[in-house]
Structure formats: C-alpha cells, structure tokens
Amino acid sequence: MILGRTERGKAPVEPVTLKILVAGGFGVGKTTLVGAVSEIKPLRTEELLTEAGRPVDDTSGVEGKNTTTVAMDFGRITLREDLVLYLFGTPGQDRFWFLWDELATGALGAVVLADTRRLEDCFAAVDYFERRSIPFVVGVNCFEGAARYPAESVRQALDLDPGVPVVMCDARGRESAKEVLIEVVQHAMAYAATQRHALST
C-alpha cells in the first residue's frame, strides 16, 4: 500500500468541519437534540434547578424539567465522509446570554428550536441571529400534547423573513434532528452564495 493512500487507491478524505448553533428558549429541547444526533458522548454542562433560581427560571409548560444548561452542550455528527458538524447548544436563560457571542464566533448557521406552547421564548434567539446576519432555520419541536400548527402559521407568528425555513421535528429522534441539521447546512450555503453574488455585482 502506498503511504498516505487507502487500500482502494483513494487518498484519505480530509472532512470539512462546520460549526452549528442550537438555540432557543428554556426547556425547548436543545440538549435533547444535540444528544440525539451526536456520534460522540455529548458534553453537557447541566446543573439542577434550585429554589433560588425559581424567580428567574420560568418553568411554565415544562414543569417536569429539573436541570438547566449553564454553559453549552457540545456534540458532533458526520453527515458525509467529507462533512462533519460540530454542534453547540446555547443556554436558554437570559442570565447566560453573555456566552452567546463566544459560541456564535465562526458559526456557519443555527437552529432556533421552538415550542408552540411557549413560542415567545424563541423571539430573542431569532432576533439575535437576524441582527448578526447568521443564517438560521426554525425547528418546531413537536412535544406530545402540544397543538400542531402549519409551518406558515409559525412563520407569521414569529414574523420571519420568507426565506427562513421552518421545519417540524422531534428533538428526541436522531433522523428527525438530522433532517433539521441538513436543512441548516443547505440554507446556510444558499445564503452564503447569495451574499457572494451580491458582493460581486
């Protein structure tokens, strides 16, 4: 075998690595989504909710939640032999948003997870990525017992630009979460191509 080549005569592929953020409100399923698709044991920075945090951690609609992310979640998924995504889940509460700028550095795009029972909780994430011109998709996490709405209704409620994809998903399911990430990559690449075209004209 020739050094540096595989047995089939092909040079080893050096994958392109892309950074994707997973954002949204408190308890929307960010940690769950990262854990569902990660091919490595995900890094989690979860802490138990305490009585001291009850005045600032609104658990309405997610009363069963007893932990919260205080820094980030991290996972990795290989979409193709030549394409690897590094996933960074952002903390959901306002008091940890100072970490977002650090996490957003170098990000290709983002997923904004939404819960139709608490749709207003993702307004801040949508605004964050719009203001920084970071392409994003909205993934509506379809919780059991939550009302189902058409994607266009969610788009109107969030006042999204027509080009922002809205997809339904189950953050617990690997294939469902993977489809959301594929949508992010495709949207971000199309966005980058549009920006390059605008600069060249």
From TrEMBL:
A Pfam family hit: ATP_bind_1
Source species, domain of life: Bacteria
Keyword GTP-binding included in the entry's annotation: yes
Transmembrane annotation, as ranges: none
InterPro entries per UniProt: Gliding_Motility_GTPase, Gpn, P-loop_NTPase
Keywords, in A-Z order: ATP-binding, GTP-binding, Hydrolase, Nucleotide-binding
Cell wall biogenesis/degradation in keyword set: no
One example GO MF annotation: GTP binding
Family: Belongs to the GPN-loop GTPase family.
UniProt name for this protein: ATP-binding protein
Organism: Streptomyces fructofermentans
